[in-house]
């Protein structure tokens, strides 16, 4: 079955279609995408993951057509950013 693995930076995006066996987990799909080899800051075991925009655990079993997203840590807390914008 085919699944997609996505990772994005402000200036670039990586999107890989990976052929996996039924029963494959989200973390295994990330490993097979080889994105962690190109982006060393992505640790598939600790990076927050999601499936179609919803957070998911690393051991989430995927279905055909799923898209696994690798999330980056927030640089600024959303509440702090909102306060800064409101203060301007």
Q: Ends: how far apart?
A: 50 Å
Radius of gyration: 15 Å
Task: Indicate the mean pLDDT.
Answer: 92
Relevant CATH superfamily: Beta-grasp domain
Write up this protein.
The chain has 88 residues and is of the alpha+beta class. It has a single domain (2-87), classed as Beta-grasp domain (Ubiquitin-like (UB roll)). 25% of the residues lie in helices and 27% in strands. The protein is built from three helices and five strands. Strands 2-1-5-3-4 form a five-stranded mixed sheet, with helices on one face.
Q: What key attributes describe this structure?
A:
88 residues; alpha+beta; Ubiquitin-like (UB roll); five-stranded mixed beta sheet; 3 helices; elongated
Topology, element by element:
Elements: E1 2-8, E2 13-19, H1 26-33, H2 35-38, E3 49-51, E4 54-56, E5 67-70, H3 78-87
Parallel strand pairs: 1-5
Antiparallel strand pairs: 1-2, 3-4, 3-5
Short synopsis of the structure:
The protein has helices spanning 26-33, 35-38, 78-87, and strands spanning 2-8, 13-19, 49-51, 54-56, 67-70. It is of the alpha+beta class.
């Amino acid at each position: 079955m085919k699944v997609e693995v996505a990772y994005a930076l402000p200036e670039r995006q990586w999107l890989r279609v990976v052929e996996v066996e039924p029963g494959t987990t989200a973390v295994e799909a990330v490993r097979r995408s080889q994105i962690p080899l190109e982006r060393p800051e992505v640790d598939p075991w600790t990076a927050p993951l999601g499936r179609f925009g919803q957070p998911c655990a690393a051991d989430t079993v995927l279905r055909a057509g799923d898209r696994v997203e690798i999330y980056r840590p927030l640089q600024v807390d959303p509440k702090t950013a909102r306060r800064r914008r409101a203060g301007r």
